[in-house]
Amino acid sequence: MTKNIITRFAPSPTGLLHVGNIRTALFNYLYAIKNNGKFILRIDDTDSERSTDEFAEQIVSDLKWLGIKIDKIYKQSERIDIYRKYFNQLVEKGFLYECFETQEELDYKRKRLVARRMPPVYDRASLNLSEEKKNQYISEGRKPYWRFKLSGKKNIFHDLVRGEVSVDTSAQSDPVVVREDGGFLYNLPSVIDDIEMGVTNIIRGEDHVTNSGIQVEMFTSLGKDSPVFGHHPLLVDENGDPFSKRNAALSVKGLKEKNFEPMAINSLNTSIGTSIEINSFQSLKEISEILDLSKLGRAPGRFSLDQLMKLNSSQLSILSFEEIKNRLENQNIIASKTLWEIVKNNLNYLSEYSKWDEIINKDIEVENLDYEFLKTASDVLPDEPWDNSTWNLWIDKIKVSTDRKGRDLFLPLRKAITGLDDGPELKELILLIGYDKIKKRLLGK
Predict the structure, then answer these.
(1) Domain with 236 in it
(2) Which of 249, 300, 315, 382 is spaced 20 to 30 A from 323 at the CA atom?
């Protein structure tokens, strides 16, 4: 019997989502919709000191803006009683043990091992403490923290991206699962939630491979099979550096504020480092149909803002007027279908539309023009009414009167009419600007 696919994205609300986080969210969502499954958002907010409701709300907002549809939202902070129930089961089964070392003692042990060029693996000194010794520590004011006892074996599992993966738990310290203050750390709540929520596939960054090897044993300790893992290469910036929640410029919120299109971000994020050719896709559904996780490259994907801008321009060029009309009007811009069709191939960002709206409808000031040439052009400007033949008729007259051609003819006209050195076809723009404004601009009035 085939399982219903359930994937999840489990960010911590301790900062803004950046394009690296979103890569994980996208791969999980695309895998889910490709397999007619469900996508869960799980807010990992057990760190009460660093987690905020503001960041949690921003995560939901960012995902929805990108077009990622969330089937169910959970907050780990609301599930602590569930974690305690499983915690008690694992204590009874002997998979968890309490420890009493201070942070200073642990640091000292670690430094000694490193100095002797040995792996800095916890020595399990607390595993065989007598009750008398434990009581002594407690009377001294020490509070226990808890570790999960690893088997010391190699855990081998199939990875959707990397194929067969082996994690040697003998090279790992028994992971701390509960702090001195009783707070739960990452690994155990994650496993418990995956069991409770029926998660079938966990797709995340390759920096989690060791965590997955550890979590395989946690699933086993609770009598459950592990979900299918997939560890994708991480994203890096143009300098090869990893992304950080502290880099607001490449956060989803920051990119939105810079007027990047969500599908431009999605298209680049899911294409780089894969077998997919970098194109501007129109929907996540379209990407899901061609994405194959087994064909991801092993090298980090390099996220380039220049590349994103090109995709953004390409994305705008394929948007219909109906798709942008409300967005423009929400910014108090009167949207014109005719103008949109003329300028959409020349925009890097949607916000640039207002610039062309002003060029069409308002007065512009341009200095250092070739007024002698423009006076001649003005003299032969055809009278209205104008149509699609007006531009060629006018240009033919200018050529006869000035003996100019090519750039020497067209650039001064464009500069006077629009104030810019490039842009959409003038033969279409002049029909919107009209005779009176063209005449004034040619004469520098």
Answers:
(1) 1-100+144-318
(2) 249
Same structural domain for residues 296 and 401? Answer: no
**Which pLDDT belongs to residue 2?**
56
On the 0-12 / 13-18 / 19+ scale of CB atoms within 10 A, 14 is middle
| 359 found inside a domain | no
Residue 360 lies in a domain: no
What is the model's pTM? 0.90
Cα–Cα nearest to 39, from 75, 5, 78, 8: 8
Give the DSSP letter of residue 35.
T
CB contact set of 121 (below 8 Å; sequence gap of 6+): 113, 170, 171, 172, 173
Same domain flag for 32 and 171:
yes
Phi and psi at residue 246, to the nearest 5° = -80, -10
CB 313 within 8 A of CB 391: no
Tell me the backbone φ, ψ of residue 176, rounded to 5 degrees. Answer: -75, 130
Among residues 445, 297, 429, the alpha carbon closest in space to that of 378 is found at 445
CB 115 within 8 A of CB 241: no
What is the pLDDT at residue 1?
45
Tell me the pLDDT of the chain averaged across its residues: 93
Determine the pLDDT at residue 238.
85
Domain count, the chain: 2
Answer yes or no: do 287 and 436 share one domain.
no
Instruction: Specify the DSSP class assigned to residue 161.
Output: T
